[in-house]
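Schema walk-through. Below, the input block comes first and the output block second. Nothing else is stored per chain. Lengths vary across the set, and this one has 183 residues.
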Amino acid sequence: MSIKEEYQEKMNKTLHVLEAELNTVRAGRANASLLDQITVDYWGVPTPLKNMCSIQIPDARTILITPFDMKSLKDVNKAIQVSDIGINPTNDGKSIRLVIPPLTEERRKDLTKVIKKYGEEAKVAVRNVRRDVNESLKKAEKASEITEDDLKKDLDDIQKMTDKCMKDIDAILAKKDKELMEI
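--- output ---
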């Protein structure tokens, strides 16, 4: 794999991580990915909630969680309560219901700051990868593995790829921001 292909792959991974992080931001709509970070202590083993429960979205503001093992219902309830999603679960003895409250204007502004922070972290990650690739290209040129012309061309290509990735990050953030403000 060439250095440029490796760089492109790392940038794509950064975009996927950003999208996954943004999916965990509660935007006023029911979304099963809100629960992705929650683990339940199941027989002494931390187990992801999605691996031990059926998660359904019956309407736009409700998440219905039904454990496969009903004995774990209390543990699931406890894990949701101590998580940082900010929603109190309602336990009916067979399943757990999470009702997503509508967002206040203040909460929307706070969430906008959170998604901007995630976006900045993604941009920093892309810049760090760019720096590492540029250094490796310069080392290859010093070791006479590539010519000076190839170095300039590769550095220019890497910068173009970085600029495109930055635009993609901005587009992802704008989409999430719009989603937050529409609800």
